[in-house]
Amino acid sequence: MKIKAGIVGATGYAGAELVRLLSTHPNAEISAISSVSFEGKRLSEVYPSYTFLNDMVCENQDAVVEKSDVIFAALPHGLSQELAAQCIGAGKAFIDLGADFRLESEDEYAEWYDGSFLDRELHRQAVYGLPEFFREDIKGKRLVANPGCYTTCSPLAIAPAIANGLVKTKGIICDCKSGVTGAGRKPSQGSHYPELNEGFHAYKVASHRHTPEIEQTLSRLSGEKVVITFVPHLLPVNRGILATVYADIEDGVSFEQIRTAYEDYYKDEYFVRLLDDGKCADIHNIKYSNFCDVSIHHDKRANKLVACAAIDNMVKGAAGQAIQNMNIIFGIDEKAGLTIVPPAF
């Protein structure tokens, strides 16, 4: 019997990606979808590419919970906590693509998201769903905080060096570039085509909400508090994130040691592709897929590690990773529904 998967917020970009990926999942089927903005409308009316492929009607949120074994919430921050309580109370699995359960510290959540934990016990049940690092935590759990785009890409770039103590934890810089889908489907001046096209700019410099989440992950991996400088930029493309992470190499550590550490760390991780020396991670090569391409480089003059990672922000940075988490929760092949070959051009 297939897993019944429901999607709350199915008409946003991440929700639409969940529909695309789950439509061909061998072990799951979409049981119900909801959308506040388009309730009563067929999904194919909102996204014509789904015509005859998914003509499901957007229902209300309660219907999705009732009909599903697992509920994916593709909602803005602040809207998932009550829904999570409803799902857990009904014995369902809940995977939150928003930020409500990602931060362990309520003080940090209040500082960066201007909110509070409505149910602290529920937050204690939540696990952080970055499988390459925390797979054992995810197994058998029912409430998963699915990491977002920057918070997946940046740690994957630098994790082996951090976890093995090969770079200094002070002075790490995460320099990231994202496609405009990361801003969501709701129109804004910043994502308006004439404003975005033929431009390239940084935004929320050293003040982006993903900063404490990246620090939380790197601190867990290193065993000590890590403070980073994080600067995101907006690319005039639809999809993709490129994270370039700079870190000082510890005294006496060779680049060959770092290379070996990366090879060992990711040798069994299907979705992380460590590139050969001299190659550079490129968002072109991971489009529509759940892969993360990682390349590492040695700045010999400054003795710095420059680690690059590329993901599709809508897949490994959102919907694909959420499905990867579902697969782990239900004990099926982690790759199920996600072995999509990126287009060559």
Note down, in words, how this protein is organized:
The structure is a single chain. The chain has 345 residues and is α/β, with parallel strands linked by helices. It folds into 2 domains: 3-147 and 316-329, Rossmann fold (3-Layer(aba) Sandwich); 150-312, Dihydrodipicolinate Reductase, domain 2 (2-Layer Sandwich). 32% of the residues lie in helices and 21% in strands. The chain is built from 12 helices and 14 strands. The strands form 2 sheets. A 7-stranded parallel β-sheet has the order 3-2-1-4-5-7-6, sandwiched between helices. Helix 8 (150-163) packs parallel to helix 10. It is globular and about 60 Å long. It starts with a strand and ends in a 16-residue tail after the last helix. The model has no long low-confidence stretch (mean pLDDT 96).
What would you say about this model in short?
By secondary structure, the chain is of the alpha/beta class.
CATH class of the largest domain: Alpha Beta
**Helices and strands: which structural class?**
alpha/beta
Q: What is the total number of structural domains?
A: 2
Strand elements, count: 14
Report how far apart the termini are.
37 Å
Q: Helices and strands, in N-to-C order?
A: EHEHEHEHEHHEHEHEHEHEEHEEEH
Q: Determine the number of helices (DSSP H or I, runs of at least 4 residues).
A: 12
Which overall shape is indicated by the principal axes computed on the Cα atoms? globular
The strands making up the biggest β-sheet line up spatially as 3-2-1-4-5-7-6
Assign the CATH superfamily of the largest domain. Dihydrodipicolinate Reductase, domain 2
What fold name stands as the CATH topology of the largest domain?
Answer: Dihydrodipicolinate Reductase, domain 2
Low-confidence stretches are none
State the major sheet.
7 strands, parallel
CATH architecture of the largest domain: 2-Layer Sandwich
Kindly report the average pLDDT value.
Answer: 96
